[in-house]
Amino acid sequence: MKRTALFILLISTFAHAQKHAPKVWTVEDIFRNGGPTGTPPGNIEWSPDGKLLTFLAPDDSVGKAGDLLALDTATNKISVLATQDKLTSAAISEKDKDHRARYGMPSYTWAADSKHLILDSGGVISLYDVASQTATRIVDTGNGSGDDPKFSPDARSISYLRDHNLFVAPAEPNSHNERNLSNTQGDTLLNGEVDWVYLEELDVRSNYFWSPDSQRIAYLQADESKVPEYPLPDLSGTHATVDMQRYPQPGDPNPSVRVGVVSAKGGKTKWIDIPQSAGNDYIPRLGWVTAQTLYVEVLTRDQKHLNLYLADASTGKAHLIYDDYDSKYLDTNYDVTFIDATRFIVKSWRSGHTHLYLYSIDAKHPLDGVATLVTPLTKGDFEVEDLLSVDIKSNTVYYTSNEGNPLGNSLSVVQLDGTRKQDLIQPYPPPAVNEVQDKRIKTLERKSFPCCSELVGDMTEEFGEKIICCSGSIKDLPPGITNPTRGGTHYISLSPDYQHFVDMQGDMLWPYNVKLCESSTNRCSSIWESQDLNDLFYRINDPDEFAIKTKDGTTLYVSLTLPTNKIISESVPLILNPYGGPHDQDVKDAWGGPLGLFDQLLAQHGFAVLHVDNRGMGGRGRDFEQAAYNNFGPVQLDDQLTALDQVLSHYPQLDPQRLGFWGWSWGGTFTLYAMEHSDRFKAGVAVAPVTDWRLYDSIYTERYLGLPGPNANDNAKVYDADSTIKFAAQLHGKLLLVHGTGDDNVHLANSLQQQQAFIDAQVPFDLELFPGKTHSISGYTDRVNLFNHILNYFEANLK
Length: 799
Fold this sequence. Notes:
By secondary structure, the protein is α+β, with helices and mostly antiparallel strands. Strands 39-40-42-41-43-44-45-46 form an 8-stranded mixed sheet, sandwiched between helices. Strands 13, 14, 15, 18 and 19 form a 5-stranded antiparallel sheet that branches. It starts with a helix and ends with a helix. Mean pLDDT is 88; it is low at 1-18 and 438-483.
């Protein structure tokens, strides 16, 4: 396409938009079901034969929202596989709804024969026949979440959890022949069930696994009898009820865990003899290598040592084959991928960045030798995110990483010998220091050139607008076919036969779109497209995205959303909205969803919003994250203030006397810490904060802060220094404290103890509680109330 033609296209597009006044953002629009952009398909899965891609319908365009849809890769046709009434239940509790959403618990599961599904409707398990499209109820587990149903590999049996026990039943309609394999009594022995702290902090999604020959099941048994309880009251009825949660806090006994193997027909469990400290150490991963051999990982309580064992499933004998160590702590890279009986891949940040390493073991004596490093599969100044799969036939490893840009990600492949690395989807380069990246280029490119053979070509200045044209020709592709979109953030799902992959991609300016791509050609067709906000006539203020340097030369990435046409000196109040805590990233080339749109609403109301990824956060390597080891608060705040000062010096319209701060969870803690350790912020909102790390869970807190005391080697002073309760008397500015009374993650005790500290110090503050709500404070009316309150709080106190 010639530049002249492109310019005409742009002018006509802009003229069409200017006929309509921009729509006004409202909290109600942002948080209504689906929001203004729509909700992408959910629960995306492949049938094991790779012929069908299944997902939950996001809207009524095919079937009805919530239906299970199937895309036939041979025809690209989408049809309804099962209706939503077979997949959802209105009877489950607020906590179960939150757990299913927060921890990605599936509502359906494929059988290996690709002919049957398990449908899980809030604990009611049904067997679904794909050919006849009929569902037959198997059992009601009584678990609104965490029932974890599975098919055996031969698809003849279904396993599930009920009353803390592991059950197996025939995968047959109207069969009542279920078997209780663990058969224990009481509420403190969990057999194959994932307890809260493993679910939240070790990213465990299942604690039992079928052997490849369908004859046995390996499972984790957790004894929680010594783990302290925390009361979660429900005050909504005439008579209050209490749910007692087992919740280990720093220094408390952890669940005592062990691994057992039991016949699928029932019988005595064979316990695996694994060296560990009961009630202290963790078993974050286990599974089968062969039908006779298990692997079991043990993570020490201080999270500095990770040991991998192979075990004989019949004798219970185990042998250490691999270990990893870090003098401070190991990151949460616990997954191990066994390619076959002699090779496996681990992730480790031993080099300073998270990379993939291939190991081999002696095939003749797997339980006697030590694994040998074959080769690093990846290396460099970047982080591997996910090992997606290994194609044994072609010796190809598929993975995603942030190579090339720590704010986005790419899809890459490498051979098992570490050679022939290739990027299937490439990132844009990151912003340079103090140079604002113009993201209009990405937007124009995506809107105007769906079929360019080269995504970025010559860029020229013409008529005051940056115009893009493609060097090279435009490919003659079938209608609706494009190349994978470069840049942004990608969530990839590979088909089992490696012929296709799903790419859900979005960036800072563009909501997520979902494509089905051919692996061999990289040609893609659209499955679902978000609603274009320009077509809805909403105004999007493009965030300025750039990098700064700290005093020691560390690069920090920053995004700043500014209100339109506000250029008078010191006319704009500025709100900092960091997360700040370990592992996560806040500044990313990714669609921000409702929270990103709330930034737009704040800008519409005349506020600027600043996001800074400080040291101690994720995505930048071991040293960057470990900068906050034993030191929650000072490092993070220093980086935020450093970035703030540089931003104020470059944007004179920002008012340094009208600064706000708000955050959620770790960000809520950060809000309190910042307002107690700096006098620069006039107003802040802290949602669901940890106010004393002694009140949070053992795994997360001890990883970063160690044990709280009373021994000489413990870190009581660190806990005191990082507690916002201890410094309540130093609060500066107006504060709104927010919490859900049903929060089973960061307990309400945190905000109540902070409240008492404010009362004792005679410090005024504001408080809002959400009855029965969990850590996410989900639900339309609650979210609308909360975010209108946040908006109004800054309106009242920063203007």
